[in-house]
Amino acid sequence: MVRHHRESVVFTLVVTLLAFLGAALMGLVIALSGAPDTLLLATFLAFLPVGPLLACFLWLDRYEPEPRVLLASGLAWGAFVATAAAIVLQGIGGLFTGVDGVTEIAVVAPVVEEATKGAFLVMLLWWRRAELDGMLDGIVYAGMVGIGFAFVENILYLAAAYDGTDGLGPGGSGALTMTFVIRCLVSPFAHPLFTAFFGIGVGIAVNSRTPSGRFAALATGYALAVLTHAMWNGAALGLGGNFVVVYLTLMAPLFLAFVGFAVWLRRSERTMLTRSLTDAAHRGLLPATDIAWLVDLGARRAARRFAKERGGDAGERAMEEYQQAAVELGFLHHRYLRGTPPPDFAARGQVFVERLHTVRPYISFPGQVVPTR
């Protein structure tokens, strides 16, 4: 556990330092991108899709909610570090390669931007692997990074459209409206979708049994992120035909298929948790009668309401603690049953079991007798 704490500290320091540096650079870039009133309007419009997107990814993350600090770190990384690094790397690359604008947008930008966004996921895998249980966790963290990246990028695009500095027309409210519709209403999911493919690769890598399997999962996830990003940028440039046709026949179906896959993953977690916690109950780690109140989201909410009615805020907190520890134990035990336990499996499992045994005497589920304290 000491090693895990040390890695957590290193991860936090690296992300915090780079976020501050990236925020300073992006603050300067945004400040030079237009007049203050233009930037305020662009920021407001760019923020509108952020809330709904966050709600969607947090909805996926309900069985075992990821630490809010890490989710916020993903947003900050996408907004400041990934955007700043992409600008710097693309600028340096343009100086040495001399590629034209079309090649830069269709090829260079996807390669660089997916690398700068994906770096956060790689650092999670390297330093905070304990927080990653599978593909759904990878999707959620990738979504946070993509949302942050899209937010700042949209500010720049909206300001440029209004000022007429995007090279597509004289600017004004008409250009601003068109850019807002395309980037914030029609395709707000684009960057989260691209990076989510790498998130899936990270989720597969966590549960891979061999180094070659982990490398293949990461490489494939990155390649798919770059490919979908390149297809989108190419369509926007008209390289693959009419943008509307490409959107309706390719990107929209791909997005819907991805949504279906994410929802399926979320539902499959209930089956997985039922199986792993049942095995854990057979080993005496928790009562089997508690499992139904742990794996069904509706039952979990009912249990928390019951706990609050019987024990107030303290009772509700105790129930939340018990449910969270049990679910974390379920995910960890699932990896044990699959034959891919993390190196600190025993120590982490013992911590979860101790949390369960500490809290269990002070809670009861609906229909059960309240334990004597």
From TrEMBL:
The keyword Transmembrane helix applies. It holds the Pfam family PrsW-protease. It comes from the Bacteria. GO terms for molecular function: metallopeptidase activity. The keyword Zinc does not apply. InterPro entries: PrsW. The chain crosses the membrane at residues 9-33, 39-60, 69-93, 105-127, 139-160, 180-206, 215-232, 244-265. Keywords: Hydrolase, Membrane, Metalloprotease, Protease, Transmembrane, Transmembrane helix. This is PrsW family intramembrane metalloprotease. It comes from Nocardioides malaquae.
